[in-house]
Amino acid sequence: MKPNLLQYESSPYLLQHANNPVHWHPWNEDTLRKAQRLQKPLLISIGYAACHWCHVMEHETFESIEAAEVMNTHFVNIKIDREELPDVDMLYMNAVQIMTGSGGWPLHVVCLPDGRPFWGGTYFKRTDWMDTLQKLSLLYQHQPEKVLTYAKKLEQGLHTVNLVEKQPITELQLSTLTKAVTDWSEHFDNLYGGMKGAPKFMMPVNYQFLLQYGHLLEDATIKEHVHLTLKRMAWGGVYDLLSGGFSRYSVDNKWHIPHFEKMLYDNAQLISLYSNAFKTNSDPLYNDIVKQTISFIESEWKSNEELFFSSFDADSLNKNNNLEEGAYYGWTQEELKDLLKDDYALFSEVYNVNAFGHWEDGHYVFIQKKSNHEIAEEYDLNIVTLSNKLNNCKNLLRQALKKRSKPRLDDKILTSWNALLVKAYVDAYTSFQEESYKNRAIKTMQALLDLLLDDSYQLWHTYKSGQKRLYGTLEDYACTIEALLSVYEITFNDYWLLTAKALTDHTLDSFYDPKSGMFTYNSIKTNTLIINPIDKTDNVIPSANSIMGHNLLALSHHFNTEYYHKVAKQMLLNMEKDSITFPYSHANWLSLYLKLCIPFYEIAICGDDLDQMARPLWKSYLPQVLLSGTNKESNLPLLANRFFDNRRVYYLCRDNSCQLPTENIQEVLTKFTTLKN
Known about the structure:
Blueprint: H1 12-16, E1 24-25, H2 29-38, E2 42-47, H3 52-62, H4 65-74, E3 76-81, H5 86-100, E4 107-111, E5 117-121, H6 126-142, H7 144-162, H8 174-185, E6 200-201, H9 204-216, H10 220-235, E7 249-250, E8 258-259, E9 262-263, H11 264-281, H12 284-300, E10 311-312, E11 315-317, E12 323-325, E13 331-332, H13 333-340, H14 344-350, E14 358-360, E15 363-364, H15 372-378, H16 383-401, E16 409-410, E17 413-414, H17 415-432, H18 435-452, E18 460-464, E19 467-471, H19 474-491, H20 494-511, E20 512-513, E21 518-519, H21 544-559, H22 562-581, H23 587-597, E22 601-606, H24 610-619, E23 625-630, E24 649-654, E25 657-658, H25 665-676
Parallel strand pairs: 1-3, 2-3, 22-23
Antiparallel strand pairs: 2-4, 4-5, 6-7, 7-8, 9-10, 10-16, 11-12, 13-15, 14-15, 17-18, 18-19, 20-21, 22-24, 24-25
Helix pairs in contact: 4-6, 5-7, 9-10, 9-11, 9-23, 11-12, 11-17, 17-18, 17-19, 17-24, 18-19, 19-20, 19-21, 21-22, 22-23
């Protein structure tokens, strides 16, 4: 059997389907023209390389000659990697959610030849799939008017979902935000952290906001919930005890059994979250999580270009050489006893190799429910002895892991996810003062600009095998600007700040829609979809618009530019109602609400040793503070006329209006605390 057209693609996910009997096509203009020429409906299947159920449906259905015959006869079949084409995924996910009330991957839609959807769903068993497609084909052939009518109605629904109405300028009320958080807190899981119920997603953006909120408003209940959640996630099976790094989510309510795929975007944001949380309580567990997750990312995902790959698959080869979800991560009691010998009893007590930690078929996934200090007391061990014993056990298991087949790697490089990792390295550096984190942030940031940014400030979305492909989306621009701003605050090199401003101005020119006061997901100049999506809901990655709101606010302070501030506030006001009503899915907007509702400050640092001067500020948790610095005369608005030879001074400023300089950093921190309160 000859490979299909996916053989010419670079995406690992698409290449996995290149030998299917289905006549898969990539998403491109040639394919869409073919559908219109043949007047066949489009059958669009969307997934990603780490998706377990995508692999299940491929094996059950797309490898079937019988199913392929139905698909090839009646449809023009398109297979899409959602990570390569997030705009297409967003459009059709919205369509499926309108039609069915839910969504997920694999995602499937059937469309008119022009791309307008009229049917959709997610995972199907083979017989159900074939039966449904045959019915849809008959409907399309014999009742085209009915299909067209429904497609038009659904298109209108998509426009309605995408609609953002520009709101009048009003003042923000802290009491409104407080009520939203109070309502949200009724859904907190006070035993295991996170939200009540299952499945449980980490949602780092939610806990970044709640960490800020609890800190700024001195809300002990919120702070306690954040730290409970971080502890339980770190103890749970969603965290890889042996290799480091987090899986995407847990299928249960105690963070125990994950869908085992590991994604760069999750781990990058969780590094940031644990790093920032460390500033508030100095918990050594958080330090361990950050170090181990960074070690995992660098050992498994670092490319030769100084950038990072995308993910590990949920599936890996089992002992029978068959792909199986979680095969790399589960352990039997017999395996553990054989490897750990006399230390098995202690290890099994700490990590619950018992009914609490049982997964399936006699396999266990490690989960902790007591602290090491509690275990040490129970076993009458000092904490150092316990830690040494557990580390020896882990090292033995790591050696055994080397004999197992690792999960499959998706080795494409995505711009926005790498930018999130740059931000993670910056946050880790400010918390732990580890120079390698700073160096890695700078290297990765520069590599991203060198490989994926053109001289015209055109960003590219993906890079693989020496080729950059696909125009950058708003998420790529927003995350890259955010990363540039963060690198500036640990280097005080104007290059990063000026590049962020130039990229922001390009984004305003290419993506901003003055009518709605929001940014479209694709450039207005290059969009080819039936609807240009507006990414406005915070999910496992914050919405691109909310990130841009934060970027614009920061730049308004750096450059004293009222227009940036005006656009950021307008965006927030547009989203205020949804954010207050549904805080769980708008946390990054609520973080922006905090910045605009509670006084926001700038600290200007001027002197000959900026690193030494900034360290106390980096180590402090200051979510309402922006840093700027120079070791020479500067034209930047925050720094102009504030540098003096042979002096090291700090300025505490608000809206570019600064108090008298001081050489005492503790005086600045005390003043800030007083003003905050």
